[in-house]
Write a structure and sequence with these properties.
Protein name: Trehalose operon repressor
Pfam family, one: UTRA
Number of domains: 2
Number of helices: 8
Distance between the termini: 46 Å
Organism: Priestia iocasae
CATH architecture of the largest domain: 3-Layer(aba) Sandwich
InterPro entries: Bact_HTH_transcr_reg (IPR050679), Chorismate_lyase_/UTRA_dom_sf (IPR028978), TreR (IPR012770), Tscrpt_reg_HTH_GntR (IPR000524), UTRA (IPR011663), WH-like_DNA-bd_sf (IPR036388), WH_DNA-bd_sf (IPR036390)
CATH topology of the largest domain: Chorismate lyase
Keywords: DNA-binding, Transcription, Transcription regulation
Largest sheet: 6 strands, antiparallel
């Protein structure tokens, strides 16, 4: 048996996924079944499955098997500041925003650290579930320093907060520091999102600044891991 037999298996499964023969969320046969199907060793099957997982074609779930991912995942730009409304319009898919929590809060110790505010400050808290094609796949938790955003309404939050802040308030949103991690699900994730059987979520934390370098917003944007592909453009300095 050729040493690159695992590549033949990998390419066969990829072709079946891309052609639609293996649809998203379909469970692959077990390792034992694949060993018999391809008449090869368990080690070869595991190499093929690992490569499929690394390249975003399947998700391996401990104790449950391997499941096909949706290869038509949405591109989410890492660089740049893009609102959900702008992203949804670019994707061309049906989208909807549900405001789950809205109001003014006194920041706890963790939020004071994230937003660089004090216990005397007041912060807008906005939690929104984002639907694309009828599935809730993003949970945005936004916190705005009231010093810079004196007025906000639930109706504004259903639309684009950035559009309101820039056009109505006149804020000049300039840049952001971003952190990306894969975290375990929280109770809010389970409550507000359509998560299927996933146990982890991709979290993009944004620290957003105005043009005078004032930090005015901290955001946790929580994405279902099978639906997004995080993309960026990099140029090597010489």
């Amino acid at each position: 048996m050729r040493e690159n037999k695992f590549m033949t298996i990998y390419e066969d499964v990829v072709a079946n996924i891309q052609s639609g023969q293996l649809r998203p969320n379909t469970k692959l046969p077990s390792e034992n079944e694949l060993v018999e199907q391809y008449e090869t060793s368990r080690e070869t099957i595991r190499k093929a499955l690992n490569l499929l997982s690394q390249n975003g074609y399947i998700q391996k779930m401990k104790g449950k098997g391997s499941f096909v991912l949706d290869v038509s995942r949405f591109d989410f730009p890492i660089s740049g500041l893009v609102s959900f409304k702008e992203l949804a319009e670019k994707l061309g898919h049906e989208s909807h925003t549900v405001v789950e929590e809205f109001g003014l809060i006194k920041p706890d110790e963790e939020l004071r650290t994230q937003l660089h505010v004090t216990s005397k400050d007041t912060v807008w808290k906005v939690v929104r579930a984002r639907e694309i094609d009828g599935e809730r796949i993003i949970l945005d938790k936004d916190f705005f320093n009231k010093k810079f955003v004196p007025h906000l309404t639930e109706d504004i939050c259903r639309g684009s907060i950035y559009e309101y802040l820039e056009k109505e308030v006149g804020l000049k949103i300039s840049f952001a520091k971003k952190e990306i991690s894969v975290d375990e699900l929280t109770e809010d994730d389970r409550h507000y999102l359509d998560l299927k059987e996933y146990e982890h979520i991709v979290v993009v934390r944004n620290y957003v600044y105005l043009d005078d370098a004032s930090l005015f917003q901290y955001t946790e944007s929580r994405h279902r891991l099978d639906k997004f592909r995080f993309v960026d453009f990099a140029r090597r300095g010489v």
